[in-house]
Design goal:
By secondary structure, the protein is mainly alpha-helical. It has a single domain, classed as Four Helix Bundle (Hemerythrin (Met), subunit A) (Up-down Bundle), CATH 1.20.120. It contains 7 helices and no strands. Helix 1 runs antiparallel to helix 4, helix 1 packs parallel to helix 7 and helix 6 runs antiparallel to helix 7. The two termini are 32 Å apart.
Length: 193
């Protein structure tokens, strides 16, 4: 029981602190390269720019995925808080992360072959991939409680936060390419319970 409380406290501290860093340029490039191969093989077509309405429709579809990924992280932080409070266990955290690694999102949109939408999709794929890697790292830490697992978890949190910011930047670039001004672009809303 003491080990579970200690592990939960460390897990909670790591997840809730967020570890703030964005990683080095080399780490960012390596992570982006490893997760963007699925969309980088697509042919970029020179098309007329999307209308605001077309871009808004595609953005709405991608927003569903962004909210879903962000909800995973929010729920994971809440669950670790519950472990700290004794109302949940590390088994609950492990099972939640395991179920996340088994999820799939639909980030493929037919016709999104312009330069900005591909960058947006690459960022979404990176964000999603990183969330799964974070879940795996949390599972490993819950299993072993090792310093190596804690270090890997911190690293994945940093990547998650980096791609969380990147997705907003790519989304804004995409919408601006369709004629929106920065002032017209609303942030992705939070998921309602």
């Amino acid at each position: 029981m003491k080990k579970q409380i200690l592990l939960a406290s460390i897990l909670s501290a790591i997840l809730l602190s967020g570890c703030g860093g964005e990683g080095t340029k080399d780490e960012q490039a390596s992570a982006q390269k490893s997760v963007s191969s699925s969309v980088s093989s697509e042919v970029i077509e020179e098309k007329k720019p999307l209308t605001k309405k077309e871009a808004a429709g595609r953005d709405a579809t991608l927003q569903v995925n962004i909210k879903y990924i962000r909800k995973f992280y929010t729920d994971l932080m809440e669950l670790t808080t519950q472990v700290d409070q004794g109302t949940a266990s590390l088994v609950d955290v492990y099972n939640y992360c395991k179920s996340w690694t088994e999820t799939d999102i639909n980030s493929n949109l037919d016709g999104m072959t312009d330069e900005y939408s591909l960058e947006y999709r690459k960022s979404l794929n990176s964000f999603y991939y990183t969330s799964k890697e974070l879940a795996k790292a949390v599972m490993e830490y819950a299993n072993t409680g090792s310093v190596e697992a804690a270090s890997k978890m911190q690293e994945e949190i940093q990547y998650f936060q980096m791609y969380n910011m990147d997705i907003d930047e790519k989304r804004e670039a995409y919408l601006i390419s369709a004629g929106y001004t920065a002032e017209e672009i609303e942030p992705v809303p939070e998921v309602e319970e």
